[in-house]
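Worked problem 6 (solution included).
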Amino acid sequence: MQLTVRDVAKLLNISEKSVYRWVAQGTLPAYRVNEQYRFNRAELLEWATSRKINVSADIFNEPESASPIPGISDALQAGGIFYRVGGTDKPSAIRAVVETMRLPDEVDREFLFRVLLAREAMASTGIGHGIAIPHVRNPIVLHVAKPMVTLCFLEKAIDFAAIDGQPVHALFSMVSPTVRAHLHLLSRLAFALRDPAFESVVHRQGSRDEILAEARRAEATLAPANAKGD
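Solution. The predicted structure is:
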């Protein structure tokens, strides 16, 4: 869905004037369509997450789908949590992450690595506090059975040109069979990472059980607000 200026202002709880100002400053990614600005939902979530800006739970009010989309904890279980992943710089770390991901044999890992690296050349996906969410500007849609989120803890923290300048030690990567699933997981992950307890367990590289438990708890706090929009 392409969002309007009014949609963005509502989701970020700001004035439309602020939206126009950020676009004019080149801060907020936008597109001109028939002399009007339009915004990509995935890019807006990425932008807000990197700046620790709260986004309304209305972001989850999407059309019904025949197949249910898993929560962050289920997607993490499917994608896996891995420790002491190699890499001495951004390219080698991203390559190690791609090689670690639980992908079907037919997926071209070299191509996935190249598009992720190209995305990083445009702007870092490091969102601060030692965490990055490497992904392409358009959702990664692959022939996978279900959406997956892979969390890789690097053996050595590296410079990722993150927004706060801190080296990155934790990378969340996601692949989905549909665009809707990708947007759902990206938005859920953005909300979870603003939860102090979940961010803390990721920052200290807690056990798999601890991380999954905090993911379930953080996501459960969002459920009531999300239900009101149904």
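Discussion: The first strand starts at residue 2 and ends at 3.
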